[in-house]
Amino acid sequence: MFGTKSLVVAVGLLSLGGCASSDIMVQKQTAMDSRLEQLAQATTALVSQVQRLTDEQKGSGERLAALDKEVSSLRGGYDELRRQQAELAAKTAQTAALVPVDAARIEVVNREAGADEHDRTAQDGYMKAFGLFSANNYEAAAAAFVSFIAVHPQSEYVANAHFWLGECYVALHRYPRAIEAFRTVVERFPKGQKAPDALLRIGLVHDAAKEPAKAHAAFREVVEKFPASDAATRARELLLGKN
């Protein structure tokens, strides 16, 4: 009898032990499932974050590429602007060299009380031509100077008329005609007031026309023929600058 009861108790204890072990296993499984779910969620979030960062990096790369392209374009535009500025500066310097010192000065022709009608007509013709030149109307001024020279070849103003005719042609970029007009002043009126300046202008026009050898020769001629003139001083400076 005692043995039977002991067996029943033992079986009961074993049953209780089995139930306890089963509960522990279930709890452990549940905990593992929960942990796995947490890890899965964390992995999904991490993948999403990595994808977002990748997209942002890609977008940043595209923006950087666009900015780099824009910078390259701006740099190219800047280089082109610098080139144009250099060309403009060179042209401006060349033009400045061709502007005579006294071009802006208005020459005043005084009427003499005893001047006859012919002299007064010559004065009026010269003043009209020079007035057109002073107003930068070079085409009309050139025509007026040509007319004045033809009508008044013996006038005291004819040397100046040839000189300013040359200046009209310089302004109109008709360099061969300008040189011809200046050369007339030098050859026909070598002792005139405009002769040194006319010869200097010949050199400057040759220089503007990209004829350095002829320009150099003209500057040397100024120094040799008119050594004490202001034109010779300028010619020496130009010769030193070209050596």
Explain what you see.
InterPro entries: CpoB (IPR034706), CpoB_C (IPR014162), TPR-like_helical_dom_sf (IPR011990), TPR_rpt (IPR019734). Keywords: Coiled coil, Signal, TPR repeat. This is Tol-pal system protein YbgF. Residues 1-20 form the signal peptide. Pfam families: TPR_16 (PF13432), TPR_6 (PF13174). There is one protein chain. With 243 residues, this protein is an all-alpha fold. The chain has 2 domains: 33-97; 135-241, Serine Threonine Protein Phosphatase 5, Tetratricopeptide repeat. 81% of the residues lie in helices and 0% in strands. It has 8 helices and no strands. It has helices spanning 2-98, 117-134, 138-151, 158-171, 175-188, 195-208, 212-225, 230-242. It starts with a helix and ends with a helix. Residues 100-106 and 110-114 have low confidence and may be disordered.
Number of helices: 8
CATH topology of the largest domain: Serine Threonine Protein Phosphatase 5, Tetratricopeptide repeat
Helix share, percent: over 70%
The computed structural class is mainly alpha
Number of strands: 0
Uncertain runs: 100-106, 110-114
Q: Which CATH architecture of the largest domain?
A: Alpha Horseshoe
Order of helices and strands: HHHHHHHH
- Mean pLDDT, as a whole number? 79
